[in-house]
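Human:
I keep going back and forth on a fold encoding question. Comparing notes only helps if you start from a blank page. Show me how you would write down a chain together with its backbone fold. Write it directly below this note and I will take it from there.

Assistant:
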Amino acid sequence: MAFQKNFFGDTMRIGFLVNEIEEEQPKYSTIRLALTATNRGHEVWFIGAGDLAYDSDDHIRARARSVLNTKYKSTEVYLNDLNKSPKHKTKRISVDDLDVLMLRNDPSSEPTGRGWAKNIGIIFGRVATKHGVIVLNDPNGLSNAMNKMYLQHFPEEIRPKTLITRDREEIKAFAKKHGKAVLKPLAGSRGKNVFLVNKKDISNLNQIVDAVSRDGYIVAQEYVKEASEGDIRLFLLNGIPLRCKGKYAAFKRLRSEDDIRSNIHVGGKVEPAEIDSRVLRIAEMVRPKLVQDGMFFVGLDIVGDKVLEVNVFSPGGLGTAKNMEKVNFTVPVIKSIERKVEYMNFYKRKFSNTEMATL
């Protein structure tokens, strides 16, 4: 069904908050989502983490950037226009006037010296929510998911046995008990400082712990034997597996022979994923918590019958899913956002009419 702009005939205004606009890449899911929104006739703005302001009149504003053209065929051209004048426009906008603010900044990707930027989306997002902006994912939910401890809030049945500590003796005991264990930082992403420890590696555990603990607490996770066969990245929308034209937004990542990480940027390979009843059951088990926390768009990393990661900050890979399944999964994502705006505007209008009737 064709999208009706909304009940009142307005184009949707959507902002994407990113770490830094200049660091975006054509392959990023954020650019793909923005391109689709632009092609569907919406007003799209990009905001960097350092571009926000809480003004003295209690409104949130931002230095924002938007492309000038209304139709794009490639993310390369879109991003080129976004970054090069005169192909874009830059102005100070009122964030409170946006219909939607998507928090696509990844706190774990912020470099040293930008610690101030890690929580900025959550901080400003909370205020925007109070001012009537739809903020995705929900900033209050995101504040509870700032690190890998978030996984421990989901049903025990779908979680690997896990120890979170900085005590190396406890880690040694855990590794000996389970035979194999994966060590990684509590706060981190993209496969940085991830180690597989076997019994034969116990003698080297001190050096591994020293390396991982530089980033804070250490997550020691039992090794799931099916990991050798790869993991599945499955996208969820409103807690439900994202599906379009009979295809699931998912793909399987296979690690290289000499690396335990399956992340694509460190050499992992991809192939189509089989989404069977076991995977769908896992998705159903995580759904209540995700919906409760307002997690609109999420990426699950699944191995066997376990969830290894719940990616709620700027989950990526929609382009890979498109390549695997030949379906543009950004379209149903943007359509879902359009429906949220329609419902929000409908109830705003209804509430306003009720108030007027009482005057």
Q: What stands out?
A: The first strand starts at residue 13 and ends at 18.
